[in-house]
Amino acid sequence: MRLLEFFRLARRRTSSAETAKQRLQVLVALDRSGGVGPDFLPLLQRELLDVIRKYVEVDPGRVKIDFERGPDCSILEVNVELPTQNLARRLAV
Amino acid sequence: MPKVIVVTSGKGGVGKTTTAAALATGLAMRGHRTVVIDFDVGLRNLDLIMGVERRVVFDFINVINDGIRLHQALIKDKRVEGLYILPTSQTRDKDALTREGVERVIEELKQEFEYIICDSPAGIEKGAYMALYFADEAVVVTNPEVSSVRDSDRILGIINSRSKRAEEGLEPVRQHLLLTRYDWDRVQRGDMLKLEDVVEILAIPVLGVIPNDPAVLQCSNLGIPVVLEPKSPAGEAYKDAVARLLGQDLPLRFVQPPRRGLVDWLLRRSA
User: What's the ipTM?
Assistant: First the structure.
């Protein structure tokens, strides 16, 4: 009996349906919570850029924003490529 | 010359997104730079089928309306070189799609990609219309079932009259039939429309016949395009369809009863 259960559990752990359920739980929770979605990201990006531009000249095309959703937390990663020359000049002052 | 291909059907649930994901992945596997765009605004699902749902940051709608650059919204597939996904918005609705906006994005994609696959929503409303408007070719996904065949005929009519090519009097959109969920046993029993029946009614060339295959559901559970599943009949059939899309002349597979081995035969007898 126990052996059977063990096999059943082992099978379930690898089944594609279980993976599907986990993927959906993460997604649906985020969809329902509404505000946590990345809908504010365009505005956030624009404002971040404005702040950075006060100090350094940056090319808007050189900004990379990544957003990775996880079950417990999400990670927002903002990468701004700064032109070396400008930065060096600023730092020297 | 880059090609815009719409995957459409009229009816929902026939396998449009599965097909768009499989064809795009198959084209990229053959070395063609390919992007697949989700036109189902508000009900995005292509990201889920492609397994990139956790990596969506910006989307098609942000590029059209919010001044986000295209390269920020494109998601690079980690499995196949040269494959990109352009997801749609989950919160906006289809009115966010403007013809000018869609045209601008497609023109920009043409600079970088050989194939632009447009995954159409079901229905014949704005989203579906926008997905087919700029198409050079159309893959009409059809199930061997009365309502699906009727809806496919309706969508073919719309492609012939309302696409950009039709409106501008250019060479018509090349149309292909892709028959999905084909079940030879049921066809043989006379319970399902035959390929020949569907072809006779719709009168367009066949791009492929995809057999009913449990691997399709397993792959969607896992977020893997079915062409990446080795040895799956549906995956193989999609690879054949990709080859035909590229101009190869291949015989149709999976339209006849599979040859059964001795073990199969014995198992069936004892069952």
Answer: 0.76
